[in-house]
Design a protein that fits this description.
Distance between the termini: 45 Å
Number of helices: 9
Largest sheet: 7 strands, mixed
Shape: globular
Helix content: 25-40%
Structural class: alpha/beta
Number of domains: 1
Strand content: 15-25%
CATH class: Alpha Beta
Order of helices and strands: EEEHEHEHEHEEHHHEHH
Length: 225
């Protein structure tokens, strides 16, 4: 088993262009997710997968400067980008993360990987209960390959995981149970808009250089309402 974590990132976001390189506590947003992965208990290869457009050269340069593997694939066919990246690196199981989620819960990600292997699932996720942007998902290469071959609708190509959710009868799917203290599905801790950016900036400034946990983030957002 070769575990890979593929972090998708590109500069051409429609709603917030260039967000992955915006500075958060004096570091690009992308660095927060990559650095956090250093806390993961499971051994995994980490690759940033970006598009082939020239505007993404800055992402590749950041990866090179920070000794992070970088793969460049199709700009808008993210499913193909993931498939080609996973195939290139020989990953048998792939964690999908995005570079606009600076507060990914690493403890829950470790639990997710454990559940995925223990249950022999094709696709396993931690969505639905955690704050938006905190959870992750993992799938086997075989499941990714099937999705790549059969998931031909535009939203399948754009979102990677939607062939799994559209056709659950074709895959063995697992979902991680989440403790009540970390349950806040209405809270956005991802960065898609300026409002999102202001929220994560507030949280990052209050973290004062430490790793902000999910429970603490929920409490801080509740107290600021």
């Amino acid at each position: 088993m070769t575990l890979g974590i593929i972090v998708q990132a590109r500069m051409g976001s429609t709603r917030l262009p260039g967000k992955v390189m915006r500075l958060l506590n004096d570091r690009p947003l992308i660095s927060h997710i990559v650095d956090r992965l250093g806390l993961l208990r499971h051994k995994a290869g980490i690759v940033v997968a970006t598009g082939q457009g020239q505007e993404n050269d800055v992402i590749e340069s950041w990866c090179r400067e920070n000794d992070v593997s970088c793969f460049r694939g199709k700009e808008h066919d993210v499913l193909d980008r993931y498939y080609q990246c996973a195939k290139s690196y020989g990953f048998t199981d792939i964690v999908r993360l995005t570079a606009d989620n600076p507060f990914t819960d690493i403890a829950e990600l470790d639990r997710l990987i454990d559940l995925h292997h223990r249950g022999v699932y094709d696709y396993t996720h931690a969505f639905g209960h955690l704050p938006v942007g905190v959870g992750g998902e993992i799938f086997t290469f075989k499941a990714l390959e099937r999705s790549h071959l059969e998931g031909l609708l535009p939203h399948h190509r754009e979102h990677v995981n939607e062939y799994f959710t559209d056709c659950p009868e074709l895959f063995r799917i697992g979902q991680l149970n989440i403790a009540l203290a970390k349950t806040a599905p209405g809270l956005r801790l991802t960065v898609d808009t300026e409002d999102d950016w202001r929220r994560v900036h507030m949280l990052a400034s209050k973290a004062a250089g430490s790793w902000l946990g999910t429970e603490e983030a929920i409490a801080l957002c509740s107290s600021s309402v």
